[in-house]
Specification:
The complex is a heterodimer of chains A (about 500) and B (about 475).
Chain A (H helix, E strand, L loop, with lengths): L1 E2 L2 E2 H16 L9 H25 L8 E9 L4 E7 L1 H24 L4 H20 L3 H10 L1 H11 L4 H29 L6 H5 L5 H18 L8 H8 L2 H26 L1 H6 L1 H20 L4 H20 L4 H32 L10 H4 L1 H14 L6 H16 L1 H25 L16 H19 L2 H20 L8
Antiparallel strand pairs in A: 1-2, 3-4
Chain B lengths: L4 H6 L1 H19 L6 H20 L5 E3 L4 E3 L1 H27 L5 H19 L3 H19 L6 H32 L4 H9 L5 H18 L8 H8 L2 H26 L4 H24 L4 H18 L6 H27 E3 L2 E2 L9 H4 L1 H15 L5 H15 L3 H27 L7 E2 L3 H19 L2 H11 L5
Antiparallel strand pairs in B: 1-2, 3-4, 3-5
The chains are: A mainly alpha (about 500), B mainly alpha (about 475).
Chain lengths: ~500, ~475
C-alpha cells in the first residue's frame, strides 16, 4: 500500500519529520504562534488519518509482517532499512498518532515560549516513535529507540518545570544506560543468529540456553527501564512531574509501551527458554511494582506524581500478563497497554487543564471543582473511574483478562495482583475526593470550564474509554493472530512438560 | 635506491604541498597585511590540488623508493581525511585569526608543512621515514600551539608540548634502535618477516615494541601518556586545537595501525593485553575526568582521550570488521570534532573567546542555528543515533564482539553511558538555562560553510552512510593485515 506513491510505513515516519522542517522558517517570524499551532495540528491529523488506512489494508487473520519494505541501508554488516507491522504494532501506531493531536491541543495554551521549536520537536518525536513500532531490522529499531531520547530530552528540559534539569538528565541517562546493553546483545545476536539483523529471521533461530539467558537479561534491563519495572522506575515520577503536559502524555502513553512492546516483540519469541526461566523474576518485580506503585500513589500530594506512580502499578499488570504465557494474559496485557495509554494520557491532560489555570498540581490547592468546572469534573471522574477499573470502562477489560490469565496458572499471584486494583480504587477515589468534591473555596485564580481545545482533546479519549469498555472485541480481533502466533513461539521453545 | 620517475610521480602530492608551502612563505612577505586572507584561499587551492593528485594515485599499491614509502588505498584514505581536516581548519581560521590578532602568513605554511609530515607518516614503509614524518608534524605543531605569543597559557602549552614531545620522540627512536638491533632492518615488511619467524630474538623485539608503543600512545593521547592533552588543547589557539585533535591523531592512528598490524602481527599476544588495558584506562580516565571540567576545550580534550580508547579497541584483532570500524571511527570523529571546535571558536563573550561551558548559556535563544549545530556535534560525540558518532561506536563494538571480546564491549558501553553526561551538560547550557548576558556568535561566510559541511556530514554519516561505507571499504582492499 502506498500513499502519494510513497510506501505507507515510510510515509508515516517521514511525514512528521519533514513536516517539522516545514515549520523551520517560522522560528524567525514574530507572532506566528497561531499559524504554527494550526499547521502542526493539521499535520498530526493527516498523519492520524493516514495511519488509519493501515487498519483498512491489513489482513487481520495473519500474524505475518505486513506492508513490508526492505532496502539495503548500510552495506557493511548487512544492515537493512526494513519495515513491517503486524496487528500488535498497528494498534500501537494508531494509538501514537491519535494521541499526538491531543498533545498539540493541550499545548495550545500550555506552551507559550518557543512555540515553533516545541512543535518541531513534537513532530520529530512522533516520526521516531512510529519508527520504533515499524522497524523490523534490529539496528534500525535501535536507531529509532535511541534517537527518540533526544526530542524527549529537549521537551522535558526546555519546556519543563522548575526542577527540569535534574529530571531530564536522569531520564536520559537512565534510559541510555539501559539501552546500551541492548546494543551489545543485538550485536551478539548478529553473530550467533546467522549474520543478519532482520528481526523475523532472528526469531526463527534456536539459541543455546546460556546465550538466551544472558541475552534475555540484556534485553530485560533496557525494557524494564522503559516500562518501568519496580526497581528501575525512579526516573518516571521525576520526569512526569517536570515535563510539560504534552511530554507527560507521550511518556505515559507511548514511551512506557515501548518497554512492554520490546518484551512482546523480542524477548519472548527470540528467547522462549530464558523467558520461562526468568518468569519468577518478572512476576516478583511485577507484583512489587503493582503494590509499591499503588502504595506510593497513596502518599502523593502532587497530582502528576500520583498518576505517575499509578502508571508503575498499571504497567505491572502488563508485564505480569505478558509472562503468564496464555492468550488471556497476553491479550489482556496488550489491551491494558492501550487502555493505560488512553486513560493515563487523558488523566495527564486533565491535570494539564487544571495546571494551565492555577499553576499548581498540589491536591491541597483544590477542592469543589465540581462546582467551579462541572464539565471538566465529569470528565475527570470518568477517566479516574476508568483508571481504577470500573466495569463498563476500558481498563476493566484489560485488567480482568490479565487476572484471568494469571489465575489460570498461578493462583497466589492473581490474589496478590488483585490488591493492586483495590489500592487503585483507594488512591483514585482519594484524588477525586480531594479535587472534585469537597468545599469550593474561591482563590485568586479564575476557573473557567473547558475551552474548545480542551474539549477537542478530551472528548475522543472519552469516547474510546467507553467504547473499549463496552465493545472490546473489534480491538481484540486485531490482536488475535499475533498473540496466538506469539504463544506458539514461546511454547515451542520448551519441552511440553514444563508448561502448566 | 633508484630515483625513477615512478617514485617522483608517486610522491607528487607531498611534493606539491611542500612546494606550495614554500611559495606561501615567499608570498607572505609580498602581500599587504589586509589581504592575508588571500593566503588562506591559496592554501585551500593547494590542498585541493594535492587531494586531486592523491585521488589520481588511488588504487595503485606501490612501494616506492625500495619500500621506504608506500602508496596504497589505505594511506590514500588517511591522506584524504587529513586534507579535509586541513581544509576545514583553514575555513574556520579566517575571522578567528584576525580577532585573536595572530594572523601571520606563516600559519598557513605551517599547516601545509604539518600536513606533509602527516602524509609521510601515513605512507611510511619504514620506521626511520616514519620518524621523520612524526618530527615534521610535531615541529609544526610546537610552533602553531604557541602562536598566541602574548598569552601565557599558549606559550606554556607550546613549551610543555615541546618538552614532552621531544622526550617521547627520543623514547620512540630508542625503540626503533632496539628493533633494528634485533632484526637488522627497519622496514615494516622486513620487521614483519623477522618477527613472524619463531626464532626471533624475543626480549629485544618486545622492548623495542613497547618503546614504540609509548611514542604512539603519546601521539594519540591515550592513557598513560595523555597528561599533555588538556593543557595543550586549552592553551593552543582553538583552530590549532581542532586541527591537532583530528589530523594529528588520525595520522598517528594510521601508523599505529600499520606498524602493529603488519610489523608486529607475529607477536600479537605480546601486545593485545596491553592495548586492551590502555583502551580501558583511556575510556575510564577520559570520560570520568571530563565530567568535572568547566572549560569546554579541556572537556573536549578529555573526550578525545576517551575516543582514542574506543578507537583502540578496534586495533585488537586483524579482521576486516576491525579495520573498517577504525577507519569509519576516525573519519566520523574528524568531522564532529573539527565542527565542535569550530563552534567554540566562533563564540565570543565580552570580546574574548567563549571557552567556558557556562558561556554557552542561552545560545539557542540568540543563535538557534549555531545551537542546533552544536547539539548535533554533542549528541554525535556521545554516540546517540541518528548521527555519525553512533554508527562509529556501533562498528567498533561490532568488531570487538566479533573478535570475541564481548566483555570489552560491555565495558566500553558502560563508559559511553557515563560519557553522555558531559556532552549533555553543553546541550543543557545552550537550551535549558536562562542567559545572563549577551552571547555573540561571530561567524563569517567561510566559517558557516565549514560548519554546514561538518554538521551535514555528521548527519549524513548517521542517516545514509552507504557512499562513505563503500569508499572506506574500497580503501581496505589492498591492505591485507
Amino acid at each position: 500500500m502506498t500513499f502519494l506513491s510513497i510506501p505507507i510505513l515510510t510515509f508515516l515516519i517521514l511525514f512528521p519529520v519533514l513536516g517539522a522542517l516545514l515549520l523551520l522558517p517560522f522560528m524567525k517570524v514574530q507572532g506566528s504562534e497561531k499559524t504554527v499551532r494550526l499547521l502542526t495540528l493539521g499535520l498530526t491529523l493527516v498523519e492520524f488519518l493516514v495511519s488509519l488506512s493501515l487498519l483498512l489494508g491489513m489482513h487481520a487473520g495473519s500474524y505475518r509482517m505486513q506492508f513490508t519494505e526492505d532496502h539495503a541501508w548500510i552495506p557493511f554488516a548487512n544492515i537493512h532499512y526494513s519495515l513491517g507491522v503486524d496487528g500488535m504494532s498497528i494498534v500501537l501506531i494508531i494509538m501514537t498518532t491519535l494521541l499526538l493531536p491531543m498533545c498539540v491541543l493541550t499545548s495550545w495554551k500550555g506552551i507559550s515560549t518557543r512555540v515553533p521549536e516545541f512543535m518541531m520537536t513534537l513532530l520529530v518525536l512522533e516520526g521516531l516513535m512510529v519508527g520504533v513500532f515499524e522497524a523490523t531490522d534490529f539496528v534500525l529499531f535501535y536507531v529509532f529507540w535511541e534517537a527518540m531520547l533526544i526530542p524527549m530530552y529537549l521537551i522535558i528540559g526546555v519546556w519543563g518545570g522548575p526542577n527540569r534539569l535534574y529530571a531530564t538528565m536522569k531520564f536520559f541517562l537512565y534510559t541510555l544506560a539501559g539501552s546500551l546493553l541492548l546494543l551489545v546483545v543485538i550485536i551478539s545476536l548478529y553473530f550467533v543468529g546467522g549474520h543478519t539483523f532482520n528481526i523475523v529471521d532472528l526469531m526463527g533461530q534456536h539459541y543455546s540456553k546460556t546465550f538466551q539467558e544472558f541475552a534475555f537479561l540484556g534485553f530485560f534491563v533496557a525494557f524494564a527501564v522503559k516500562v518501568p519495572m519496580f526497581p528501575f522506575h525512579t526516573w518516571l515520577p521525576d520526569a512526569h512531574v517536570e515535563a510539560p503536559t504534552a511530554g507527560s502524555v507521550i511518556l505515559a502513553s507511548v514511551m512506557l509501551k515501548m518497554g512492554a512492546y520490546g518484551f512482546l516483540r523480542f524477548s519472548l519469541p527470540m528467547f522462549p527458554q530464558a523467558s520461562h526461566f526468568f518468569t519468577g523474576l518478572i512476576f516478583g518485580l511485577s507484583i512489587a511494582g503493582i503494590v509499591w506503585g499503588a502504595l506510593m500513589a497513596l502518599a502523593q500530594e502532587d497530582m502528576k506524581k500520583l498518576i505517575a506512580y499509578s502508571s508503575v502499578s498499571h504497567m505491572g499488570f502488563v508485564t505480569l500478563g505478558i509472562f503468564v504465557f496464555n492468550s488471556q494474559g497476553l491479550e489482556g496485557a496488550l489491551l491494558q497497554m492501550i487502555n493505560h495509554g488512553v486513560t493515563t494520557g487523558a488523566l495527564f491532560l486533565c491535570v494539564g487543564v487544571l495546571y494551565d489555570r492555577t499553576h499548581s498540581r498540589l491536591l491541597s490547592d483544590y477542592g469543589g471543582m465540581a462546582k467551579a468546572m462541572p464539565i471538566f469534573s465529569t470528565m475527570l471522574v470518568i477517566f479516574s473511574l476508568s483508571s481504577l477499573g470500573l466495569p463498563g470502562l476500558n481498563s476493566f477489560v484489560g485488567e480482568f483478562l490479565v487476572l484471568l490469565g494469571t489465575f489460570r496458572t498461578h493462583m497466589a499471584l492473581g490474589v496478590m495482583a488483585s490488591t493492586g486494583i483495590v489500592l487503585a480504587a483507594i488512591y483514585m477515589l482519594y484524588l477525586l475526593s480531594r479535587v472534585v468534591w469537597g468545599v469550593y473555596t474561591p482563590k485568586k485564580w479564575a476557573l473557567p470550564d473547558l475551552n474548545r481545545y480542551e474539549w477537542a482533546s478530551l472528548l475522543p479519549l472519552l469516547i474510546l474509554v467507553v467504547w473499549i469498555g463496552v465493545q472490546p472485541n473489534p480491538l481484540l480481533s486485531l490482536l488475535h493472530a499475533s498473540v496466538s502466533h506469539l504463544i506458539g513461539q514461546v511454547q515451542g521453545g520448551v519441552p511440553l512438560a514444563s508448561i502448566r | 635506491m633508484s630515483f625513477s620517475v615512478v617514485n617522483i610521480l608517486g610522491t607528487m602530492p607531498e611534493i606539491y604541498l611542500t612546494f606550495f608551502g614554500c611559495i606561501l612563505l615567499i608570498l607572505e612577505t609580498m602581500i599587504p597585511k589586509e589581504k592575508r586572507s588571500w593566503l588562506a584561499y591559496f592554501s585551500i587551492i593547494a590542498l585541493v590540488f594535492a587531494m586531486v593528485a592523491s585521488i589520481g594515485l588511488n588504487g595503485k599499491g606501490l612501494p616506492l623508493y625500495s619500500g621506504l614509502y608506500i602508496i596504497d588505498p589505505f594511506s590514500n584514505f588517511f591522506k584524504i581525511t587529513i586534507y579535509l581536516a586541513a581544509i576545514l581548519t583553514i575555513l574556520f581560521s579566517l575571522p578567528y585569526l584576525d580577532q585573536e590578532d595572530i594572523h601571520l602568513g606563516e600559519y598557513y605554511a605551517f599547516i601545509l608543512f604539518s600536513v606533509v609530515g602527516m602524509m609521510v607518516m601515513v605512507s611510511a614503509g619504514d620506521l626511520i621515514t616514519l620518524f621523520l614524518g612524526i618530527e615534521l608534524m610535531s615541529l609544526c605543531f610546537y610552533v602553531l600551539v604557541g602562536l598566541k605569543r602574548d598569552d601565557n597559557r599558549s606559550v606554556e602549552a607550546s613549551f610543555k608540548y615541546f618538552l614532552l614531545g621531544s622526550f617521547t620522540a627520543a623514547i620512540f627512536l630508542f625503540g626503533i634502535s632496539f628493533l633494528y638491533g634485533a632484526a637488522g632492518t627497519e622496514t615494516i615488511s622486513g620487521l614483519a618477516g623477522f618477527i613472524s619467524n619463531p626464532g626471533a630474538l624475543k626480549p629485544l623485539v618486545v622492548v623495542g615494541m613497547i618503546l614504540t608503543l609509548v611514542g604512539f600512545t603519546f601521539k594519540i593521547s591515550a592513557v598513560p601518556f595523555h597528561m599533555w592533552t588538556p593543557d595543550v588543547y586549552e592553551g593552543a589557539p582553538t583552530v590549532v586545537t581542532g586541527f591537532m585533535a583530528t589530523a594529528g591523531k588520525i595520522a598517528a592512528f594510521a601508523v599505529f595501525l600499520r606498524v602493529f598490524w603488519v610489523a608486529f602481527s607475529g607477536n600479537r599476544h605480546d601486545w593485545d593485553l596491553l592495548i586492551i588495558l590502555i583502551s580501558i584506562l583511556s575510556m575510564a580516565a577520559g570520560n570520568l575526568i571530563a565530567i568535572m571540567q568547566t572549560n569546554i576545550k579541556r572537556m573536549l580534550a578529555y573526550s578525545s582521550i576517551s575516543h582514542a580508547g574506543y578507537a583502540l579497541m578496534a586495533l585488537l584483532l586483524p579482521n576486516r570488521e576491525s579495520l573498517f570500524a577504525l577507519l569509519f571511527y576516525i573519519f566520523t570523529y574528524m568531522f564532529m570534532t573539527v565542527g565542535a571546535f569550530g563552534v567554540i571558536l566562533m563564540m565570543r563573550r565580552k570580546g574574548v573567546e567563549g571557552e567556558e561551558i557556562s558561556d554557552f548559556v542561552g545560545l539557542s535563544k540568540q543563535h538557534p542555528i549555531a545551537a542546533i549545530v552544536m547539539l548535533i556535534f554533542m549528541f554525535s560525540l556521545a554516540g546517540i543515533p541518528p548521527f555519525g558518532g553512533f554508527l562509529a561506536k556501533f562498528y567498533v563494538f561490532f568488531a570487538v564482539v566479533h573478535a570475541g571480546y564481548t566483555w570489552l564491549a560491555v565495558v566500553g558501553i558502560i563508559f559511553a553511558a557515563i560519557g553522555a553526561y558531559y556532552y549533555l551538560k553543553v546541550v543543557m547550557a545552550m537550551y535549558m538555562k536562562e542567559p545572563d548576558g549577551n552571547v555573540v556568535f561571530h561567524s563569517s561566510m567561510m566559517g558557516r560553510i565549514a560548519l554546514a559541511l561538518t554538521a551535514g556530514t555528521t548527519v549524513i554519516l548517521g542517516v545514509y552512510p552507504a557512499p562513505f561505507v563503500d569508499y572506506i571499504k574500497s580503501s581496505l582492499a589492498l591492505f591485507i593485515p
